[in-house]
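A further point concerns the way the authors explain their paired sequence and structure data. Nothing conveys this as quickly as seeing an actual entry. An entry of this sort, consisting of the sequence and the corresponding backbone structure tokens, reads as follows:
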Amino acid sequence: MKFNAKKCYILSINKKTSKFYQLNQHILQEVQDNPYLGLQISNDLKWNTHINNVCKKASSTLGFIRRNLRNVPQNCRKTAYISLVRSIMEYGATIWNPYLKGDIHVDKLEKIQNRAIRFIKKDYKSRESGCITKMREELELETLEARRLSLRLILMYKIVEGLVPALPTDKFVKFQKSKRQIKSTKFRDCETTNLVEKRVCNNTKSLIIPDSRTPQYKNSFLVSTTVHWNHLQEDVVHAKSAEAFKTSLADRRD
């Protein structure tokens, strides 16, 4: 395979001085971010650029279906939102999930869904407190933040059960042998948005929380999801299938 040097770029995540790279006597251009498999990877390993792109694309798609599906039945509007808009906001979300309290990106994503809810219900006038929550519950939709947590836990279940060949269980996670291996760790509770510090060991499939020094790694999928996984009850982690696990999570929230 031959590479076109003019279409190749350098994305360096090293804090040290960048080096020059050449391909076919052409000095490769260094960039701050670049798309890879549908995700916009940045050199600081933050997801600001990617989430902004996601919000822009989702908002544009929502505008399209609002213009073209305003007269179809409510169930069709809901299906269109789930299929065409929400899918954009959840692609790869297990990786780029926002984690900061009061993160503007969390609000931006939820506001797009709130606009979609008003479109689905054809209610643009209600402004009383809690009206959006009420409409969302009537449509049986979850907040995007709660859904992202569920998606992360479902992926962790598949990894633990060896259902993801690309992520071997024995190499990706380690089971704890005693409660002493479960470290006291701070994490963000997605429902209350409070910063919680707990030594959690609620099930016999609890995992060792990897050591982390940087905020990016501490709030990455592996570390943050491990904390939430250890908080799950015994019957949930011992679900017989991924679908049963998903159902158990939903029942716990209800």
About this structure: The two ends are 53 Å apart (CA to CA). The mean pLDDT is 86. Residues 99 and 215 are 10 Å apart (CA to CA). The chain has two domains: 48-141, 166-253.
